[in-house]
Amino acid sequence: MSTGHYEVTSEVAYDLMQDHMDVMLELLNGPKPQAEIARRLGSDATLQRMLRHGLIGADGTTAWAVAEVYHQLRQEGMLSFLERYVLPALTASMQYDVQLGDTLTTLQMDYLKVPNAQGCLRHGPVQRFIERIAEISDLPAQGPVYRLTVLVVGTSRVDPRNLPLEKAVLEHVRSAAIQRTSSTEKDHAVLSQIDCLADRTRHDAILTVISDFSKLFSSYKISDPSTANYHLTVASHWRQSDPTQAEEQPC
Amino acid sequence: MATYTSDPRSNGKLGQPNAAHCVDSACDSLHIVGDELRKFLAHEIPTKILMRQARDVVLLSGPTGAGKEKVAAACHEAARLALGRSGELVEVNCANLGRGLFESELFGYRRGAFTGADRDYPGLAKRADNGTLVLDEIQALEPQDQARLLRFLGEREYRAVGDDKMRSCTALVVLSTNRDLRAMVRDGSFRRDLLDRAIAKIALPSLYERRQDIGELAQAFALEAGRDITNEPFYGLTRRARTDVETAVMRTKEVSVRRLREIIRNTVFLNAADNLPEALESEMVLPSLESELAFHPSDRASQDVTELEHEFDSLMGLSRLHEIAARHNVSPTTLRLLCRTLHSMIAEMGDQPRSYRNVVERANRLLKIALWLVSGAQTQAGFRRYFGTLDADIPTKSVAHQIYYDVFPREEAAQ
Known about the structure:
The complex is a heterodimer. By secondary structure, chain A is an alpha+beta fold. Chain A contains 8 helices and 10 strands. In chain A, the strands form 3 sheets. In chain A, strands 8-7-10-6-9 form a 5-stranded antiparallel β-sheet, with helices on both faces. In chain A, β3 and β4 (62-65) form a beta hairpin. In chain A, 39% of the residues are buried. In chain B, the strands form 2 sheets. In chain B, strands 2-3-6-1-7 form a 5-stranded parallel β-sheet. In chain B, β4 (157-159) and β5 form a beta hairpin. In chain B, α13 (299-327) crosses α14 (332-348), α15 packs across α17 and α16 (380-389) crosses α17 (397-407).
């Protein structure tokens, strides 16, 4: 029922994807009863909207994702994009002074000196990285699945200071975001987020993909940011439980 | 007399209405849109009105079209809910009062007190008793009326024109203006002692000062216009369109809420000429933004950069709060309280550089507040014990004391 890639081009379709990401991920995991999807979306009217915009298919009883991969470019301000989409995943990936409990996170940050810092990563290695993750997320699930988010942030605007990890990552994201808003520099930066549902097997396989991706640049890695011409971070965040919904406490 | 508590853990079980809840309810009933404005009111109304039992005169200032009328109504409604005040909301525009009519309108008159007084008239002060009296465009009062008002605000007693009897008035008095009254005091057109009488000052931020409300407001106005046109589902503005509206307003800096509503409504009606589309995308909104606010799509990138330079650190603080809340089962209500507190902390920083360190230090402090609330500890000692179970740094007594009063400001004693 689903084939290949789907490019989300219209603003309305983008909004629908953003508003109902969890439902889309469920459908990417396999067809579901249409009534259940309508309930998850909040109304049949929303289901009809998604059908009208070609985001999902349905035959009256079952709904399904029309593609294996949905690709969308940002169609909102960069700040709101970061606020709603990127930073929640990034902060979850950065361990703070509190126990994480049932989440698994990874954060790999590297300074690189690469021969072609301008546009070297975006259309080649990163694209292949995303495709490999998409292939893995398509494998049959062997256990409960939960949302896994992988962030790739790259920028040729390297902060030359030797900053603590947390500070460095945040400056990195800010630089990448600024570059991505510039028509002349946007290809010098990467700010990509991949969301999928993963069981333990898929999760471990994706971590291997992340590790392989990092190894691609082994020969270019340096420790001194002042001589680097590219800054690359890959972060992942996998919650091994449903998002906690606290009861309303008296307040 | 009703008392209120700012204790966020109070749930009204003891009959004590919670201030934040009352302000929220007031904003809901008046359809006040905008998280930033609601956070602002959630701080201002309790501290400037409710804590003071609505006794202090309020000066409500703000640019034209900023929504002072609605905010005044919110003050009234919050006071009604929190303090059990049963009186009316009475509004009078001082600029519309005829010459010489202020006293009789405000204090009332007896039949025969003057030519044309063919019946008793109770006056606005009586109507507003135990309610709220809003004097809009206060700067328009004639000097002699300023003097009369000053006496009234001092004693809260008045006499109707032609009457011997002194009456008292317990109205919450709100003086509303879009002018700089201090400047008017300096040039002699407004009495200093009258300005000084307004002890509680609420300065409403302009739309430009509450960026995050712009998109939300634009969407609310679009949906309102859509409802005027059709019963069919209309989804308002897309995210891109809302961002463009926000960018256009931020670059212009002089757009009021009223003007924004006008622009958005006109845009919706223009696009409804043939058939109102399901939603307005940015291409449909751009012509209005270009003609009304001189916006161009190339402005998007530079606005993004400006915001990334100035707002990124605040975003990080908030993002971290949300993450902490999710990990520690902090309820949505408590999280809203924490976000408001962080916003207040950031606002207090004023012109200080909003560096990562500044904001995250505050976020770290709020982490401890969040954990306090989750712990349910009733005392500082209990809080410190809870921290011990987390194997985290136990705060010192003074820090615990400080955090406690951040969350639970001292309440005024009930009388």
